[in-house]
């Protein structure tokens, strides 16, 4: 069964246009930044985690790979229109806020809303614990499943998703580099978009000020948020717009709608 899945997924990789491998640091860069920043730069690098022993023989990984192959990629309709609609990603440092804003934005612009975990993989999102490399690989698979779904939809409707590749990558970079001074500068290959993954037209990064939290926190104010926001500011392609929820969710959503209309109408 495992061999069957692997052969089919190899075929899927080539059909999907995956010809790249994960970014490898040069010797000079490796000595400065290390070689263990947890970022995936290709579908093949994601699948390698699932096929590494002992992961390959686990029943849960086989179920996930089966779902990815048979449910996430089971249908693909031919585009009905030559011109497509925008693909917009909403990310941020407060999950509840992002969920609210992305839903409101999708309603306002008539977009299809996709969650950060693809629907075809939703039953498995709690299989792997925090810190497990398979959990990161699972979310990596989900990014490619989302990209496939976007391609099915955005020839007719705009698409909004509340989390995508940069969200996963930024948290990996943020965990690796503990101070702003250590973070690689803009233009560094760490920020390179995977060549085999659909690139969004616009990324909105929404910050949630600490003084708006309703519950207390033991974390020093903005200790990690400033670092994450700084990383987002280093990303040049695709473009990132940074907004704050301080004016309120309705105002932020209206601001995003204005940006979308200005850029894509």
UniProtKB/TrEMBL annotation:
Superkingdom of this protein's organism: Eukaryota
UniProt KW keywords: Membrane, Transmembrane, Transmembrane helix
Membrane-spanning residues: 6-25
Protein name listed in UniProt: Uncharacterized protein
Native species: Cuerna arida
Classification lineage: Eukaryota, Metazoa, Ecdysozoa, Arthropoda, Hexapoda
């Amino acid at each position: 069964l495992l061999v069957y899945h692997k052969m089919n997924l190899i075929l899927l990789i080539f059909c999907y246009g995956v010809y790249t491998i994960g970014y490898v640091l040069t010797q000079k860069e490796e000595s400065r930044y290390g070689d263990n920043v947890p970022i995936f730069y290709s579908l093949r690098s994601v699948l390698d985690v699932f096929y590494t022993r002992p992961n390959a023989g686990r029943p849960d990984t086989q179920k996930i790979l089966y779902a990815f192959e048979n449910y996430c990629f089971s249908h693909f309709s031919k585009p009905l229109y030559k011109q497509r609609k925008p693909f917009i990603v909403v990310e941020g440092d407060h999950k509840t806020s992002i969920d609210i804003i992305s839903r409101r934005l999708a309603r306002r612009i008539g977009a299809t809303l996709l969650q950060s975990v693809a629907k075809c993989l939703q039953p498995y999102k709690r299989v792997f614990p925090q810190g497990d490399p398979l959990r990161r690989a699972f979310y990596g698979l989900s990014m490619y499943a989302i990209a496939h779904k976007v391609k099915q939809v955005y020839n007719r409707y705009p698409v909004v998703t509340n989390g995508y590749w940069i969200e996963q990558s930024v948290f990996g970079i943020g965990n690796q580099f503990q101070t702003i001074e250590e973070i690689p500068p803009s233009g560094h290959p760490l920020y390179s978009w995977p060549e085999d993954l659909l690139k969004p037209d616009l990324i909105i990064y929404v910050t949630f000020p600490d003084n708006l939290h309703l519950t207390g926190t033991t974390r020093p104010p903005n200790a990690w948020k400033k670092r994450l926001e700084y990383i987002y500011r280093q990303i040049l392609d695709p473009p990132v717009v940074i907004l704050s929820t301080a004016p309120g969710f309705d105002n932020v959503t209206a601001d995003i709608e204005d940006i979308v209309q200005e850029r894509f109408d």
